[in-house]
Design goal:
Elements lengths: L24 E4 L4 H4 L5 H6 L14 H13 L15 H15 L3 E5 L7 H16 L3 E5 L3 H7 L2 E5 L3 E6 H7 L12
Parallel strand pairs: 1-2, 2-3
Antiparallel strand pairs: 4-5
Helix pairs in contact: 3-4
Length: about 190
């Protein structure tokens, strides 16, 4: 994921993007305790997603404000606009961060375990939101250890364990028997 973002160099080979610039990739990282306690309003966090493509302009444009508002509405967090990010539940924080990532792109989202630490109900809601975004034409690359959700919501699967074990359409992954990619009875 970090190599796709240009944060580290690939171990070998190179990564080429034909249609997307690095500044146009939306990224939802795994949350850390420091991020959870970030002292900013929901609005400030969401609109900061536009910073990567705007340069050094001192003020947000009306288009950037409109985009942030639209993404907040899409994720059902408009009513939290003036709330402090650090006072939100884990699920609300993830929606805020997803809205922020969406402000950076209209084409590619990279999600690093977006449901980690969320309760089952909120997890299901997040997966449905992610699926809805994908259905609207946004390419989503997501790291997940949740095989059941991956086979339910993903169109393609890359299963790794120190090396690629499978890459292809989800239905082929299921047909090959996803359990065959687990060693010693443990999911990898």
């Amino acid at each position: 994921m970090k190599a796709l973002l240009g944060l580290i160099k690939p171990v070998s080979g190179e990564i080429k993007f034909c249609c997307v610039k690095h500044s146009e990739i939306g990224y939802l990282p795994q949350q850390t305790d420091i991020q959870r306690d970030f002292p900013a309003s929901v609005w400030e966090v969401v609109i900061s997603g536009t910073l990567g493509k705007r340069g050094i302009k001192p003020f947000y444009s009306s288009a950037e404000k409109k985009l942030a508002k639209k993404n907040m509405e899409l994720l059902g967090i408009s009513h939290l606009k003036n709330h402090s990010y650090q006072d939100l539940s884990g699920g609300q924080q993830q929606r805020v961060l997803l809205a922020r990532a969406m402000c950076a792109t209209t084409s590619l989202l990279l999600l690093d375990e977006p449901v980690a630490g969320l309760d089952p109900v909120v997890t299901e809601e997040m997966y449905k939101i992610i699926k809805k975004l994908n259905d609207k034409g946004i390419t989503i690359i997501m790291i997940s250890h949740d095989i059941d959700a991956a086979t339910k919501y993903a169109s393609h699967i890359l299963h790794l364990h120190n090396e690629p074990l499978f890459f292809g359409k989800t239905e082929d992954y299921i047909l090959k028997g996803s359990s065959s990619f687990f060693k010693g009875g443990e999911k990898e």
